[in-house]
Amino acid sequence: MEGLRSAWQELERADPVSVPGTFDFVQSWATTRLCDELHVVTIRRGSELVGLAPFVQAERSLGPVTVRVLQSITKNGFVPGVRALLRPKDADSSAAALVDYLTRAEQSWSFVLVNNLRPECALYRALVAMGEKAGRPPRFGATEHSVTIELPRTHEEA
User: Fold this and answer.
1) What is the DSSP string of 100-150?
2) Which helix (H) or strand (E) segment is 86 a member of?
3) 154 DSSP β-pair partners
4) What are the phi and psi torsion angles at 4 (to 5°)?
5) Residue 122 CB-density burial (10 A; 0-12 exposed, 13-18 middle, 19+ buried)
6) Pairing state of beta strands 48-62 and 37-45?
7) pLDDT tens column, 49-59
8) pLDDT for the residue numbered 96
9) What is the chain's percent helix, strand, coil content, to nearest 5?
10) 91-146, pLDDT tens digit by residue?
11) I want to staple 81 with a disulfide (CB 3.0 to 4.6 A). Which of 20, 23, 32, 153 is the partner?
């Protein structure tokens, strides 16, 4: 994660966030509180970092089945407020690339849980577009600020 420090901090300046989204906060939180694997997705145009999204990769039990889940650092006691950082001029293409990465069939997770979404944000729009294209919209939580992406695989494949 240290190798991302300067590029992450540059993104913070381009896409201002509250404290939970900063490099220093996520690094400190990950080294002192995180029990599961930190999974930072980076989005680049050439060598330039134009977006990133920190997630936690974990195994969760759903009844008798254990599944791999990738989730924003916001649920089940995780820190509220951490979200994808996207350079504003590249936000739509970066969000589309992030959604493509998160939903690829070869990924090792069965569910992706994304939080801190607003209808006006690029990631929200990209998730809705992905759902429309696939013929099955993302499942939004109690509010439209969280979404679960159910990936097309059986539990036996996970």
Assistant:
1) HHHT-TTSS-SEEEEES--TTSHHHHHHHHHHHHHTS--EE-SSTTEEEEE
2) strand 85-86
3) none
4) -95, -5
5) buried
6) antiparallel
7) 999 988 888 88
8) 93
9) 35, 30, 35
10) 999 999 998 898 887 778 887 878 777 778 888 889 888 888 877 766 665 554 55
11) 20
Token reading at 139: 């499942």
Give CA–CA dist 134/129, Å, rounded. 9
**20 within 8 A of 72, measured Cβ to Cβ:** no
Supply 131's token pair: 């759902």
**Tokens 């300046």 identify what position?**
13
What pLDDT, on a 0 to 100 scale, did the predictor assign at position 158?
Answer: 37
Query: 82 vs 144, which has greater pLDDT?
Result: 82
Residue-level pLDDT at 16: 67
- Cβ atoms 34, 56 nearer than 8 A: yes
